[in-house]
Amino acid sequence: MKRTLYALIFTSTITSFLGCSTQEPAEQVASGGKGPKNDKIEKLIAQMTVDEKVGQLNFYVGDLFNTGPTVRTTESDKFNDLIKQGELTGLFNVHGAAYTRRLQQIAVEESRLGIPLLFGADVIHGFKTVFPIPLASAASWDMQAIEKAERVAAIESTAAGITFNFAPMVDISRDPRWGRMAEGAGEDPYLGSQVAMARVRGFQGESLSEAKTMAACVKHFAAYGAPEGGRDYNTVDMSERSLRETYLPPYKAGIDAGAATIMTSFNELNGVPASGNEFLLRDILRGEWGFKGMVVSDWQSINEMVAHGNVENIAEAASMALKAGVDMDMMGDAYLEEIPRLIEEGKFEEKHLDEAVRNVLKLKFDLGLFDDPYRYSDTARESQEIRAKQHLDVARDVAKRSIVLLKNEDHLLPLNKETGTIAVIGPLANNQADMNGTWSFFGEAQHPVTFLQGIKNVASPNTEVVYEEGCDLYDDSKDKIARAVSAARSADVVIMAVGESAVMNGEAGSRSNIQLPGIQLDLMKAVVATGKPVVAVVMSGRALDLSWLDENVASILEVWTLGSESGHAIADVLFGDYNPAGKLPVTFPRNVGQVPIYYNHKNTGRPYDGDYSEPKSERVYKSKYRDVQNTPLYPFGHGLSYSTFEYSDIRLSADTIGFDQTLKASVKVTNKGPYDGEEVVQLYVRDLVGSVTRPVKELKGFTKVMIKNGETKEVEFEITSDDLAFYTIDMTHKAEPGAFHLFIGSSSERVKQTGFYLKN
Ligand code: BGC
User: Fold this and answer.
1) What residue's CA is closest to ligand 1, atom 2?
2) How many other CB atoms sit within 10 Å of the CB of residue 321?
3) What pLDDT, in 10s, does the model give residues 488-529?
4) Which residues contact 21 (CB under 8 A, 6 or more apart)?
5) CA-CA distance, 272 to 200, in Å (whole number)?
6) Which segments of 369-449 does DSSP mark as H helices, in order?
7) Helix, strand or coil for residue 118?
8) How many CB atoms are located within 10 Å of the residue 278 CB?
9) Which parts of 68-180 are beta strand (E)?
10) Please, which of 268, 420, 545, 730 could form a disulfide with 273 given CB 3.0 to 4.6 Å?
């Protein structure tokens, strides 16, 4: 989908950041195309045996071992023989310049054809410098900051040999029960698409073959974020319209930004598992979107088709997946074990195998591995660049930008650095291991700055900082609560560090209860009962039910999971060195029973917008609950600042536009003080009547503006009919003439409204 809508200010890019080259974009070589690279690939394929071809599709994880909340890989010789025999295309989640160089040497020097290995990894939010989890950085709504962080992730990972990153995850999720909400950019297709593009640009830079860039992998294709009941790996059943309108745009945006690879998903979609789904992989991905890159399965997802029940055995699964266009088999052995035999028995055409091999070899060529197989395994660079000071600075910057101020009664925040005594209480206050969060294979537990340390480092040396754990994250014992209460009593202000540990979200991290885990709410209640001013600092990988906190605590910061510089970023915000500007990329419900809840819902025939204050008889047969309001606790796009931003003078350049015309929409935003600050100005539209019903609001643009205390800035957006297009009654993607509402504001709910017509 061509996007012409953009904000007219702050369009500078960061291509020159940290010395990334500005070469031509990586050549996209179509299968069967012309050119020297294709000739080389075809010559190589002509020399390969069937076993060697299948070997190029076979991808294994390195040796794994568990260390607390993360899984690590270790060096091993167990793959040496497979590499020599050409039975492995590469390994993933292995790292280290020396180790990857040693393995590469075996492939290049000791295998018959010398085809270099690919080293893949889940660099989901940074390598050794750990950035905020993806949901957190999405909350920054700051594409430059996100791109910069991913560029650093690529610089560090490539120095350690990694060339193929299993990120970004771009799955839209409207269900906070699903633990992998933590890994995506939230609920909205427009924001999700912008973030997907920024991440791909960050990982891949200008040229794939440059030594500091790696191949991105858009995942998990498709609709993995919509499992029934929020239970990971569960069934996905949805209309093609919802699929195309809500779930597919971020994958498409990632592909359009040049992502070299894509990963299939574990789920079935409308009865067909994604890893054997021709509609997704052939018709949409390669057909409609013209994807020329490489498709990798998820972990054994080809084999899992047997359990899904659309094939009888692994042979059928392998055959179906390869024909559907899954080039690489991650951890399944399905191709390795089944395809040579099927070819020999005349049950599988070798041309499908050749097509997959071609896509894999092309990726290796594009990465420059045939020119210099060791370019990514650079011990000198590894020792200089990993956890370099400037990388940790980027981590702190992105982390503070990711924090969302949900509530700030009576301006309790920012705190004075000279506050007499601050009590820091909670199971996450002095907890290093959980700061790195889900999917931090490479981040080490001894590195992150804890909340407590950050607060001590940033507060004045005259301020006394006392700490109590208060309770455990897992154990229900209330023994430590009394000590926490007495610490609170001795303090002028209390900071409560509560929320989820790293393993409570992420893969297989679904929860049916989205309140604070364990007895943390009991701890909160006991501390709040002291009457001391309380700031809740909530760490989570999803939207939580924070209703009790909202009613009873003065200030709430949603800090997600912030990585290496967690404590510093939190302290920067608590003490006002940084004025928070993050905005929610997901709706926070009042309770789990409202889920799925999202801002861009339909109106229904019996909408209910009331707050239950009208007589019961007037609200009975409306679309609502009897025990909770329809509105969320905190809407999509919500996030406060220490300043107040006032919106005025919303204006349009015309009342009516034609299909070829551009509408300009502007608004004035005044920072009423008392601090300088950034504001994310958001633009939404509503198509009032469509051949199929349209959402009550849809995000169509945003921009982040720095506005000085007392200053007014005018923010302008452009909108064309392309931005108003949707899948009409006959599934054509186009805009329909008619009336539209246009809203600009500081969240999906706090908006100024105007309207216009689109005419033929
Ligand atoms: C996850 C993928 C990940 C892969 C390799 C799977 O379980 O779903 O997102 O890339 O493992 O670690």
Assistant:
1) 298
2) 30
3) 999 999 999 999 999 999 999 999 999 999 999 999 999 999
4) 205, 206, 207, 210
5) 28
6) 379-385, 389-402
7) strand
8) 15
9) 70-74, 90-92, 118-121, 164-165
10) 268
